[in-house]
Amino acid sequence: MKKSLFIALCCSLFLVSSLHAETYTEASINLQASRDKSFRPTSVVETAIPITATIDVDLVTLSFTSNLGNATVTIENSLGEVVYENTLNAQAGTILPISLAGSESDTYYIEINSGSKKWFGEFDL
Q: Model confidence over 32-91: pLDDT tens digits?
């Protein structure tokens, strides 16, 4: 009896953990900074990335932590085709959800441009 109960409990825990693993898919998108070569900073160069990016199944979410002003967000597939482009007034606290529903499984490249500043990264669907 105890052995049957133990086996049932183990099976239940395995089932719950596998269901949880399938439903939690959010991952960070590693953004890197790049600057226009003609731009010469006159003070200490920023090292913090003012944007966090995550992907959850087919939903990319950008969270802006600084005031960037006008920023253009572009996402391209591995063939270089633009699948998303938008210009927005990116202020601290702005959250931009981007649905890529219906997009094919592929490697995608994201780029955020704001004046002379640029951030880029890649992710897979």
A: 887 555 545 444 455 688 999 999 999 999 999 999 999 999 999 999 999 999 999 999
Q: Provide the CB-side half-sphere exposure for 124 (13 A, CA).
A: 2
Tell me the C-alpha to C-alpha distance, in Å, between residue 108 and each of 2, 53, 77.
52, 13, 5
H helices of 24-124, in order, are none
For residue 52, the tally of other CB atoms under 10 A from its CB is: 14
* DSSP at 92: T
Considering only the top CATH level, what class is 26-124? mainly beta
Give pTM, 2 decimals. Answer: 0.71
What would the two tokens of residue 96 be? Answer: 């931009």
| Beta-carbon contacts of residue 95 (< 8 Å; ≥ 6 apart) | 61, 62, 63, 64
